[in-house]
Amino acid sequence: MVTRVCTRVRGLRGIGLLRPLWAVALGGFLLFTPLSTRADQAAAPEEVVKTYLRAVYAREYGAAYDWISLEDRKVKTAEEYLRENGAFSGAPLELARTLASLVRFENTKIAFAGDRATVTGKVIYPNANDPAIQDLLLEFDEERLTALSPAERAARVDQLRQMARSGRLPVIVGEHEQWELIREDRSWRVFLNWAGAVLVHFDGVTKAGLPWEFTPVQPVVRATPGETLRMFYRVKNLADRRITGKARHTMDPSEETGYLEIVTAFCFLQQTLNPGEAQELPVVFRVNSEIPESIREIRIRYEFYPLDRFPSSSGSTSNLGSLPESP
């Protein structure tokens, strides 16, 4: 039996198309000290973690990638990493950097084992999902933030800092966070073990004669359990008329569907394309951190139907008409 219904997952790590800042770090955030954005110096492990997580928090993923281990980077390219995460720029990035500077890291401990190091500690970081921060930063909406004058943006930055000084800044506390590092080429880098990630396979088909081209941009994504990522499907209307469609998904293995959480996807809404129009449709997902070690691959398949032939909850299809079904 396979799951055939799109579900929306909510919670502390839930995200929409614009990811809340605090939800993206792999293990927490640190108060940073100025360091080069390039991993070309012999910085101490804790400083590497601080710089890496500062970049992740602010969604400067190009800079973050420089601090990821070469062993990991053999598995996932910078292009894949950037596509799977997305990045801030302009005014949102400016404000995100301010939030990153307000993160505190306490009780740091470092354990060395040859060319490996483990950094642990308690983290206290701004809760960017809190309404007080969301309202002040206009929900990180780039268009609205860009419309502000430099003086108005500076005033919001100053207000964030005043909130932190007075203890009014909403925060989330991570009691015990841990990061692994590898010493490579005389530099310490963060080890994410992408080689051991779960392989999530994406497939796409059209059904009931829908004259659309529909394929995943990245058919396979490596997902570390607990990590929230995004991927895209490319869809194009091949017909000479405007058509509305809707998608649903199935997963395999079906008995393990609870381990792949669909945070948000295009199947929650119907899609309308004009003749020849093409779009990229996002899927934001997460592999559950409790997934068993025995499960290293999950397959998800999206099926796109003409809206008037989309299957009902009982599994039947309405208004079948005479259109042939594509395989």
Kindly describe this structure.
The chain has 327 residues and is of the alpha+beta class. It folds into 2 domains: 27-191, Nuclear Transport Factor 2, Chain: A, CATH 3.10.450.100; 196-309, Ctag/Cox11 (Ctag/Cox11 (Pfam 04442), Sandwich). The chain contains 8 helices and 13 strands. It has helices at residues 45-57, 61-66, 70-73, 78-85, 90-101, 131-136, 142-147, 150-165, and strands at residues 104-113, 116-126, 171-184, 187-190, 198-206, 212-216, 220-223, 228-237, 243-252, 260-265, 271-273, 278-287, 297-306. The protein has a 5-stranded mixed sheet with strand order 7-5-13-9-11, with no helix packed on it. It has a 4-stranded antiparallel sheet with strand order 1-2-3-4. A hairpin with a 2-residue loop joins strand 3 and strand 4 (187-190). Helix 5 (90-101) packs parallel to helix 8 (150-165). The longest helix has 16 residues, at 150-165. It is globular, with a radius of gyration of 22 Å. The two termini are 20 Å apart. The model is unreliable at 1-37 and 318-327 (pLDDT under 50).
Structural class computed from helices and strand pairing: alpha+beta
Q: Helical percent range?
A: 10-25%
How far the N terminus sits from the C terminus, by CA atoms, comes to 20 Å
Largest sheet: 5 strands, mixed
**By CATH's scheme, which homologous superfamily of the largest domain applies?**
NTF2-like, domain 1
Tally of structural domains: 2
- Uncertain runs are 1-37, 318-327
Sequence of strands across the biggest β-sheet: 7-5-13-9-11
**SSE order, one letter for each helix or strand:** HHHHHEEHHHEEEEEEEEEEE
Number of DSSP E strands:
13
The CATH topology of the largest domain: Nuclear Transport Factor 2, Chain: A
CATH architecture descriptor of the largest domain: Roll
Mean pLDDT: 83
Reading off the top of the CATH hierarchy, the class of the largest domain is best stated as: Alpha Beta
**Per the principal axes of the C-alpha atoms, what is the gross shape?**
globular
> How large is the share of residues in beta strands?
25-35%
Contiguous helical run count: 8
Mind telling me the C-alpha Rg? 22 Å
